[in-house]
Every structure is written in structure tokens, then in C-alpha cells.
Design a protein that fits this description.
This protein has one domain: Sandwich (Immunoglobulin-like). A hairpin with an 8-residue loop joins β7 and β8. Helix content is 8%, strand content 42%. The protein has a four-stranded antiparallel β-sheet, with no helix packed on it. Strands 2-12-10-5 form a four-stranded mixed β-sheet, with no helix packed on it. It has 161 residues and is mainly beta. The protein is elongated and about 60 Å long.
């Protein structure tokens, strides 16, 4: 009986937190070399959970933060987060700024004029990264976690004369 209890505790220790946030990009971002565009990154939060907005309400809270690896073929501007929604935890006297449901984060991208030169049909690349967050429901806050993010980008050659 003690062995069974120890196995149950050990299983809980290695069990990853539940997946409560998913990140997707509905369509590849198309940029003409020398131009710019915005990637629409969709964040879906499991019903019943919330994540801290960016910026977070308090310095000790973990804000949602999209981090993409730099790529020399495209420049990224500062990530644009939507405003959070007010949410008051039971027993507290002030609101927190949170996200829940589905939200869209925008990433400004710019392709240098030389991007895609030498390629007939354009250049395809993927910006890899993560969305860092801390999810809470009405009962518990999970450990800070992250969800993978992949932003496909297609740079078209500038065909202007």
C-alpha cells in the first residue's frame, strides 16, 4: 500500500502541467522585399483559465510574452499585445489585467530590399519561438510555462521595374 502511494506521488512529480494555452498563426505572413507586414499570432486559452496580460498588473506577476528567435532575413518590431481585461480574484480589493478566451498578438515584420534576391519564387522561412505565460483558474495558479510558436513568413521578390 505504501509502495502504491509512493508511485502515485512520483507520477505527479513528473507529470507536466496541463496544456491550457495554444498558439497558432492562421496563415503565412506575406511580405514583398523592401516592405512590411504584421503577423497575426492567435493565442487560445482553455476555458476557465486566464493568463496575465502584457504588461502585468504587478511587477511580481508573469506577463504573457511572445519571444521569437531573430532571423537575419527579416526584421521584427516590438510585439503588440492587446489590452487586458479586468479580473478580480475572490477576496482581493483590486483588479488584475488578464487575457482569457482567444486573443491576437501582432508582430511587425520588415523584409529588407535585398531579401529573397536570387530566388525566383520568393523565400519561405519560419520564425520559431514561445509564448511564456502563467495560467490561473479560480482555484489555483499553475507554474509559469510556455507554448511553442511558429510564424511562417513568405518573402516575395519586389517585381517593380
Amino acid at each position: 500500500m505504501i509502495a502504491t502511494a509512493l508511485l502515485a506521488v512520483a507520477a505527479q512529480a513528473v507529470t507536466p502541467p496541463p496544456l491550457v494555452v495554444t498558439v497558432s498563426v492562421p496563415e503565412a505572413v506575406r511580405i514583398v522585399a523592401g516592405g512590411s507586414a504584421r503577423a497575426r499570432v492567435v493565442v487560445a486559452i482553455e476555458k476557465g483559465f486566464r493568463i496575465q496580460a502584457n504588461p502585468a498588473s504587478e511587477p511580481y506577476l508573469v506577463p504573457a510574452r511572445l519571444r521569437l528567435k531573430q532571423d537575419d532575413r527579416v526584421r521584427m518590431g516590438p510585439v503588440e499585445y492587446p489590452p487586458g481585461k479586468p479580473y478580480r480574484l475572490h477576496g482581493t480589493s483590486s483588479d488584475l489585467s488578464v487575457y482569457e478566451g482567444t486573443l491576437v498578438v501582432l508582430v511587425p515584420l520588415e523584409a529588407p530590399g535585398s531579401a529573397g534576391t536570387g530566388t525566383r519564387g520568393g523565400l519561405d522561412l519560419v520564425l520559431e519561438g514561445t509564448l511564456e505565460y502563467q495560467a490561473c483558474n479560480r482555484v489555483v495558479c499553475l507554474k509559469p510555462s510556455s507554448a511553442p510558436a511558429r510564424v511562417p513568413v513568405r518573402i516575395e521578390p519586389d517585381r517593380r521595374p
